[in-house]
């Protein structure tokens, strides 16, 4: 059986201001370590037993998601 991870990302960027902004929500920032929360989640949900993740985000963040997944 293969699990298809669903990663939800987006937001208004108000809770961790000024690190988090409307154009760059907190999951894309490097809060702890060298990768973002989004990248850490994608890495955690990869490997044996996992399909390619399904990323649900707004069009404003599509380039950030693509860039961070490529890294």
Task: Summarize the entry for a quick read.
This protein is an alpha+beta fold and 71 residues long. The protein has one domain. It is 24% helix and 8% strand.
Overview of the molecule:
This protein has 71 residues and is of the alpha+beta class. It has one domain (6-70). It is built from two helices and two strands. The protein has helices at residues 37-44, 62-70; strands at 6-8, 54-56. Strands 1-2 form a two-stranded parallel sheet. Strand 1, helix 1 and strand 2 (54-56) form a beta-alpha-beta unit. The protein is globular, with a radius of gyration of 13 Å.
Q: How widely separated are the two ends?
A: 28 Å
Percent of residues in beta strands: 5-15%
Q: What is the overall shape?
A: globular
How many beta-strand runs?
A: 2
Low-pLDDT parts are none
Strand order of the largest sheet: 1-2
Helix/strand/pairing category: alpha+beta
Question: How would you characterize the largest beta sheet?
Answer: 2 strands, parallel
- Give the domain tally: 1
DSSP helix fraction: 10-25%
Mean pLDDT: 85
Question: What does the radius of gyration come to?
Answer: 13 Å
Q: What's the tally of helices? A: 2
Order of SSEs: EHEH
